[in-house]
Amino acid sequence: MIRPAEVIQRKRDGAELAPDELAELVLAYARGEVPDYQLAAFCMAVYFRGLSDAETFALTDAMVRSGETIDLGARIGRRVVDKHSTGGVGDKTTLAVGPLVAACGVPFGKMSGRGLGHTGGTLDKLESIPGFRVELTTDELVAQVREIGLAIVGQTADLVPADKKLYALRDVTATVDQVSLIAASIMSKKIAAGADAIVLDVKVGDGAFMKTLDEARTLAEAMRELGRRAGRDVVCVLTDMDQPLGRAVGNALEVREALATLRGEGPADFSELVLDASAHLLALSDLGVDRVEARRRAEQAVADGSAVAAFERWVRAQGGDPDPEALPKAPLIREVLAPRDGYVARLAALPIGLAALHLGAGRRTKEDPIDHSVGVVCHRKRGDAVEHGETLAEIHARDEETAREAADAVLAAYELADEPPAARPIVLDTLA
Ligand code: URA
Fold it and tell me: Catalytic annotation on 408?
């Protein structure tokens, strides 16, 4: 048996740990045999000293082994693809990519998470759909993917329990934003859930964990290396999170926008990301198509209505009402008006995410209830021309007071200038 204090000390002093002792530490922690305070000290040592590639893999592998694993591909009899985002503001990509990929004949079974802090979670967005059930058993997940090609569910308690414990600990010990710990956290869940190929959307900017392109590239490389060691194909797209993705931020508002995008009526940046990520997933699947053909098929599924049909089939299968009119609406809508003529030089993602959170769209603690109807719709985004008095954004609120606070915060997130800013594409880089 390892002595945790000695392992912590050696990491603190910059030593490289043996894979077995790292695995033993994490597995003993998951079993409740090592206390939180020792793992907290260990995470802080890792924060300052980092982990080598071999250590990061040993950590990931131990986390996978801490619980059950699902061989989704073998149970469905197909090569299974998955996607994951490192988290951002207005990121409803999974809600559109899932149906689009399924409409193109590729099975998509995904476990998603909830939002915490200023970033939203796919499960919370799905629960804004009346009747939608996110808690399926593994057997129900497999059966639904087999029958209708698509299921998006909450992570079962048995999948990577070490990550659940460790993530909660990191969240309160200022050790979330460490590359190896993020990479191990994300990849352990993807590997345990059985994906053969994974598209990782690494967000870059003020609304993301990774603030610069260099940091995002380092994280992307670490996750690709973990995928290589585990025998999985990993493609990383590095995408802009300096402004919210699309226009809508807030649960029901984002479901509406995802559905509009599947109809071909979505905002340009979000539509482009959905098509790009879907094309990567189709090209990694067992369809045997290249990226160009994959993109053509994804565009076709939007144009011919099959993507919307897949969305409706999927939502009904999980007990939900796919009619956008059934989504909850906030009682109050307040407009944020442009104080001058000009161009939107900047629309900061973080304050928009926080404004939505304070309106009630997110949680301040894990137990907080969510108001699915509230949020922010940014009608003008970076580069858009605006005239004095025109609507920049809409606040969807439950009362006057929260609406007023959000309106002030949203207005402060906009920077207007005489000249348009340099163009910045949604996909900043791709590591394939
Ligand atoms: N998302 C995760 O699942 N884990 C992290 O550590 C960070 C983002």
Answer: no
